[in-house]
Amino acid sequence: MQLQSASTRIPTLSKVYLCDTALAKTVRFFEDKEKLMENCVFLELLRQRNTSPSLEIHYWNSGVNEVDFVLRVGGKVEELLQVTYADSLNNVHTREIDALLKASRELKPKKLTVITWNAEGQKQFGDKKIVFTPLWKWLLGWQTLNR
C-alpha cells in the first residue's frame, strides 16, 4: 500500500532489514552502528505489530529528506521515528531534525521521536516537540500508541 500526497509518498517498507542482528553483524551486512540500530528498531516494531495488527510501518522520503519510520494506527499517522547513532543531543545531525520537521508538516503526527545511542531529552522547534530517547530505553520501555 502506498499513500500519495502532492509532494511526497510514504512507500511501504522497501528497505532491507534482517531478522537476526547478530547474523547481520557477523556477515558484516551492516558496517555502521546506525544501520544496526535501525534494524533493531524495525524488529521491535514488527514485534509490536504482532500484538497490534492495526499498526502500519512505513517510511517517508521527499527525495531530499528521509524519516526512518512512519507509524500509522487506524489510518492516522501517530508517530515519526528517526534513528541515529548519537551519544549527546549536540551530536544529533541537523539532517535528522530537518527531516522530522519537514515530514511532520505534511503528515501531522501526534509524536516526533529520535532514537539515539545514548542521548536523552526534549527540544522544542516552534510548535513541534521532539523527544530524544536512547535505544536501550526505547526497547525496554516502549510506550504504546494506545494499540
Automatic annotation (TrEMBL):
Residues 11-77 form the DUF4143 domain. InterPro entries: DUF4143. It comes from Candidatus Marsarchaeota G2 archaeon BE_D. This is DUF4143 domain-containing protein. Pfam families: DUF4143.
